[in-house]
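Troubleshooting: if your tokenizer reports a length mismatch, compare your output against this known-good record of 336 residues.
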Amino acid sequence: MPQPTTTKLLRELEVGEKFVEFVAIRSINVRQKRDGSPYLILDFADKSGRMSGKLWEQVEEFRKVLEVGKIVKLSGAVTTYQDQKEVTIERLRLAKPEDPVDRSRLIPASERSVEEMRRHLRRLVESVEQSDLRSFLRRFFDDPDISDPYFTAPAGKLWHHAYLGGLAEHSLTLAEILMNITEIYPEANKDLLIAGALLHDIGKLEEYNWHVTIDFTDRGRLIGHIVLGQQILEEHRKKDPAVPQELWNQVIHLVLSHQGTREQGSPILPMTLEAILLYSADEMDSKANAFNRIIQRSRESGQKWTEYVKLMERYLYAGESPWSGAESGDGQDTLF
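Known-good structure output:
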């Protein structure tokens, strides 16, 4: 098979364009032809997004070697089916150890550097006034088993902050949002809000695997990040039990209730001012991040409306470039 022939990512390819590229397998589904024989629908992914393709030949041989999360070398052309781009697969094989795979092309990453986010987290931890809680947070995030993955983990698989560093970016942004909210609700406990923002999604360190693509681990699917987060925190408190029990109960309550409703996965509902603020700010930041990413992608392709977003059951309006045509004709600033 020839070497990769394009610097374009999957979603940048135009209809009719041929390419050879290393991509990851996101999903594998077996379907039947009219004669009853199988074919495969493969979802390929790189950091730009996903594109599916159908594999019609040598199906049984490929079923034995292809796995979700594997990197493959794909040769094909971009076509359309039901108004959606897809790949016509020409050649396909698993990547070899000696292949020049650039993993930075496979998973998107936060625009914020790890070093800058580490400094930001340290500032937030040091701003906690309750000494025992501050000491716990220091030791917790000084543990390399926590801090190393914390700054590389995603916060989601597909929806919000679904990129390397997304967990830390989301948690730090959430802390800043909550600090601003306390200007309006000064009765809220800032220490609890900082701890809740930094710790609420800590279970995602075990919920996701992000080596080649972002996907759930077995424990992630079976247990979920909320319960995993409680387990991680309780294990660390055994080594560091100084935080008063009443304060610790409220920290754990923030973790357990942060998704707001049982339908969204929280085993309990928010019962404190800090818990309802955390849930509301978390909803805002996660949805705003997802909306912004989808809208910007449509603007870059010149589309006023996004594709249909199944999770939100709606199209999103991308519109024109922000503020286009906002300048007045005579160049003078007026109130009307």
